[in-house]
Write a structure and sequence with these properties.
Layout: H1 7-10, H2 18-23, H3 25-30, E1 35-38, E2 42-44, E3 60-66, H4 73-85, E4 89-94, H5 130-135, E5 138-140, E6 143-145, H6 153-170, E7 174-177, H7 185-195, E8 198-201, H8 208-213, E9 220-221, H9 224-233, H10 245-257, E10 265-267, H11 283-294, E11 299-303, H12 339-358, H13 361-364, E12 368-372, E13 376-381, E14 384-389, E15 397-400, E16 409-412, E17 418-420, E18 426-429, E19 435-439, E20 456-459
Parallel strand pairs: 1-4, 1-20, 4-7, 7-8, 8-9, 10-11, 11-20
Antiparallel strand pairs: 2-3, 5-6, 12-13, 13-14, 14-19, 15-18, 16-17, 16-19
Helix pairs in contact: 6-7, 11-12
GO biological process, one term: carbohydrate metabolic process
Catalytic activity: Endohydrolysis of (1->4)-alpha-D-glucosidic linkages in polysaccharides containing three or more (1->4)-alpha-linked D-glucose units
Active site: 178 (nucleophile), 202 (proton donor)
Length: 465
């Protein structure tokens, strides 16, 4: 008889492996995703802490050994080879800021001397102090994550060699960099150059100017400022739900502070944040949020379990977040008939159509606002007009087109309904269902290899079997 999931079990390995992931690659393919973000691969500490063990991959103790719980070296190679056969990119999660909790520095490989860590040991108390952010340790008094001295020549050379050799050996296509703001920017310039692949940095704060500045040392940044807003805009709570104006304002901020948001990762949740679906169970609101995620500026990233309506643990006070947001995916039975799974498949199919029909135009173009009010946001991106709302409305809204509009007839790619522009160059919107409007007189398909057409699906291996 299967045991119920407890907090203890959620903080330990659940049995997921590279071999198991191979068996479910077609589950990802059939949902339409063409890239997978996976857990860090090095060995992690098995030392028991108040937060369990390093089951998640972020508590490395030996960067030269693979995590034995995920499988052997050949298993990892086979997994990546099988993904590539299906035209799926693999993005590796990497950590260079810290190691796992332990009582002595000589425990770690190759960083087995105190000089390889920032001294004296301190915990980050003030996240507005950049020196403290870069030189002090994450964690708590009861579980410190020793902060690596990434100014030390040996630490630097070890990581540069490791990332280069790891990418070459296993043929990874991209890297997601953990705790990006906790290491000096100049380190990342060399690190990303040695990796030779697309890099995506994690800067987990809402300050757009601060987050955007890190795109000078990575190809893209996880768009946390947008993440926080999307969760406020697309939630069921009427009192705390914010208007669509905050998204439009964020779009303007993006243009000022990011080099190119189309190369950044956008998301509704992940393994570090609340399950998005814990805050909304309204199917139309969920559809609107997913449409914005998949058809706005940036590379969409969907966290495993979203497609199965995972909400965390509703019986726990903080059940939307870690560790309850990391439940095993196999509990769902990989149900391909779940409505969110099929809806994501449809959205990815439309993205593929846009890739074929417009080459890279849609993906590299930046969205332009056409209509904005409290509950509806309409914008143009390439040749596509996207309509999203966060609540129902009881009046018809009119969308104005300029006199150079390419067609008087527009097709909603979501339901195939045809909309016609009237004599005043206006199109009526009468419901809060999302819309993806394409001119009926669209051009013939052409092919593309544009980076921005990627859509990522996050797999954490302890959950995936």
């Amino acid at each position: 008889m299967e045991q119920p999931i407890t907090e203890y079990s959620m903080r330990h390995y659940c049995g997921g492996t590279y071999r198991g992931a191979i068996d479910q690659l077609d589950y990802v393919v059939e949902m339409g995703f063409n890239a997978i973000w996976i857990s860090p691969i090095p060995s992690n500490t098995d030392i028991e802490t108040i937060y369990g063990v390093g089951w998640h991959g972020y508590w490395q103790d030996n960067i030269y050994q693979l995590n034995k719980y995920f499988g052997q070296e050949q298993d990892l190679i086979n997994f990546i080879d099988e993904a590539h056969k299906r035209d799926i990119w693999i993005m590796l999660d990497v950590v260079a800021n810290h190691v796992g909790p332990n009582v002595t520095n000589n425990y770690y490989v190759p960083f087995n001397e105190s000089e390889y860590f920032h001294q004296p040991l301190c915990l980050i108390k003030d996240y507005s102090n950049q020196t403290e952010v870069e030189f002090c340790s994450l964690g708590s008094e009861r579980s410190v994550l020793p902060d690596l001295n990434t100014e030390h020549d040996f630490v630097v050379s070890s990581f540069l060699s490791w990332i280069n050799e790891t990418i070459m050996k296993y043929k990874f296509d991209a890297i997601r960099i953990d705790t990006f703001r906790h290491v000096r920017k100049s380190f990342w310039k060399d690190y990303n150059r040695y990796s030779g692949v697309y890099s995506l940095g994690e800067v987990a704060t809402s300050d757009t100017s601060y987050v955007g500045s890190y795109q000078n040392v990575a190809d893209g940044i996880l768009h946390y400022p947008l993440y926080f807003l999307l969760n406020q805009v697309f939630q069921d709570n009427d009192q705390s739900r914010r208007s669509m104006f905050v998204i439009e304002n964020q779009v303007q901020e993006n243009e000022k502070y990011f080099n190119d948001t189309t190369l950044c990762g956008i998301f509704l949740d992940n393994h570090d944040q609340d399950r998005f679906l814990n805050h909304t169970q309204n199917s139309v609101r969920i559809q609107n949020a997913l449409v914005y995620l998949m058809f706005s500026d940036g590379i969409p990233i969907v966290y495993m379990g979203t497609e199965q309506n995972f909400t965390g643990n509703p019986n726990e006070k903080y059940g939307a977040t870690d560790p309850w947001n990391r439940e095993p995916l196999w509990k769902s039975g990989y149900n391909r008939s779940m409505w969110i799974y099929t809806y994501l498949a449809k959205l990815n199919q439309i993205r593929s159509l846009l890739k074929e029909q417009y080459n890279e135009e849609f993906f590299i173009s930046h969205q332009q606002t056409m209509l904005i009010d409290n509950d509806t946001y309409v914008y143009k991106k390439g040749s596509l007009v996207i309509v999203v709302s966060n609540q129902s409305f009881n009046r018809t809204k009119k969308l104005s087109f300029d006199s150079t509009v390419v067609s008087n007839r527009w097709k909603d790619l979501l339901d195939n309904k045809i909309y016609e522009i009237d004599n005043n160059n206006e199109l009526e919107i009468d419901s809060w269902q999302p819309k993806l409007l394409l001119p009926v007189s669209s051009s013939a398909p052409i092919l593309s290899s544009c980076l921005a057409v990627l859509s990522f699906f996050i797999i954490i291996f302890f959950q995936y079997e």
